[in-house]
Amino acid sequence: MLCASIWRCCHGEGRVGIGHCARTSDHSCSGCQLLLSSVDWSLYIANVRSRQIFCKAEANISSNLPASEPTGASQYEKIVELLTTLFPVWVILGTVIGIYKPSMVTWLETDLFTVGLGFLMLSMGLTLTFEDFRRCLRNPWTVGVGFLAQYLIKPMLGYAIALTLKLSAPLATGLILVSCCPGGQASNVATYISKGNVALSVLMTTCSTIGAIAMTPLLTKLLAGQLVPVDAAGLAISTFQVVLVPTIVGVLAHEYFPKFTERIISITPLIGVILTTLLCASPIGQVAEVLKTQGAQLILPVALLHAVAFALGYWISKWSSFGESTSRTISIECGMQSSALGFLLAQKHFTNPLVAVPSAVSVVCMALGGSALAVFWRNRGLPADDKDDFKE
Predict the structure, then answer these.
(1) What whole-number distance in Å separates Cα of residue 387 and Cα of residue 318?
(2) Looking at the record's lineage, which domain of life comes first (predicted)?
(3) Among 318, 338, 264, which Cα is nearest to 44's?
(4) What CA–CA distances, in Å, run from 37 to 6, 34, 74, 118, 149?
(5) Could you say which DSSP state residue 70 is in?
(6) What letter does residue 241 receive in the DSSP assignment?
(7) What angle, 0 to 180 degrees and rounded to 10, lies between the N-to-C axes of helices 198-224 and 232-239?
(8) Using one digit for the tens of pLDDT, what is the confidence trace for 313-350?
């Protein structure tokens, strides 16, 4: 899990640089609040409730925080933020280790892999509250477009690429499976880097994650069932166990045990960084031999899937009259999904090991492609008149 500190301006102009008020260009506006968000990768920028420090003038209350706490928190945030922005480096390092020293990462097999992925889902749940789901209801069109892009455009794109490139049945099934997976928490980090709308990204990831219980097995059965036998019920049960249960437990813990949750959130980010890197490296290590012999023909379809998904997500958002920040967010959500979940489902519910290979390749393509796009957008900045499509 990754973490970053984000400033949100009380004047309603929140998509600005870290630590700056949109109106005063100051680091210490009396009307702004600092939101520390923990973000899971498989990884993510978690929702904005880890810790809140309200300015005394705005809140009109006396502060009981010791004077040294902000400094300590700031140092911790800087370390984790650095680890977050270096995520592509960890992915590349994990890929190299997975291919050339697979024994270092292949110990994270199915059962442990399931536990690790479940922990990441729990981490995301710990940062959510029931209010987040009410925010989804206040933004039906914005969140809905992202949901349709994730579960309509991406699966059809995976199916079309598999048929066009005439992939073998196992590889085609694996490509379709990963294209039907929900948004990955890494998209929240990429959105943050790209100056997109992080709050919207977190909500879209949450909605697609919950939707995966039905959509992932249903779409996989519909699109890949003609290629290989698909156990839709088994896929649904596994997705429910690995994704929904940990998320619900996290939400309930945050709602009813907030003090306990605060202590957990403070230590999970750095653990999550290590865990996420392993969840990226382990799939590569487990299919290392296949990648050495068939890597070239596998990279093209997976890279094409992500590249076209990024482009379609962006232009559909523009066509829907969304602002630049929202369009970037939806593009990243459409192009990045939970490849680790796809790998786990392929291992548990398909007999042919080749079905898991596209998900393993997707881990690398998704992380590098999404990070590169995020850095490109960050350097371009946002239009001065960019509109806000998101209602808090």
Answers:
(1) 12
(2) Eukaryota
(3) 338
(4) 7, 10, 13, 19, 26
(5) H
(6) I
(7) 160
(8) 999 999 988 999 999 999 999 998 888 889 989 988 89
Assess contact for 239 and 115: CB atoms under 8 A. no
Q: What is the number of residues in the chain?
A: 392
Q: Which two tokens stand for residue 215?
A: 């959509």
Distance CA 286, CA 105 (A): 8
Beta strands in 179-274 (DSSP E): none
* Cβ atoms 4, 77 nearer than 8 A: yes
CB 253 within 8 A of CB 126: yes
Query: In what order do the strands lie in the sheet containing 51-54?
Result: 2-8, 33-39, 51-54
**Calpha distance 275→2 (Å, rounded):** 10
Q: For residue 8, is pLDDT > 60?
A: no
Stretch (H or E) spanning 390: none
Q: Where in the chain are the domains?
A: 83-380
> What whole-number distance in Å separates Cα of residue 335 and Cα of residue 269?
24
**Residues 6+ away with beta carbon under 8 Å from 361:** 291, 295, 298, 299, 302
Beta carbons within 8 Å of 239's beta carbon, 6+ residues apart: 212, 213, 216, 217, 341, 345
Query: Is the pLDDT reported for residue 67 higher than 70?
Result: no
Flag the least confident range among 20-34, 152-166, 232-246, 300-314: 20-34
Sole residue written with tokens 């909500």: 203
Mean pLDDT of the chain: 76
The gap from C-alpha 304 to its chain's centroid, in whole angstroms, comes to: 19
The encoded tokens of residue 378 equal 């960050």
CA nearest neighbour of 7 among 24, 40, 44, 32? 32
What's the rounded Cα separation, in Å, for the pair 206 and 208?
Answer: 6
Nearest 5°: phi and psi at 362?
Answer: -60, -35
Residues 72, 360: Cα–Cα separation, whole Å: 38
Mean pLDDT of 12-39: 40
224: nearest Cα among 268, 167, 273: 167
Which residue is it, tokens 């403070």?
Answer: 266
Within 13 Å and on the Cβ side, how many CA atoms surround 48? 21
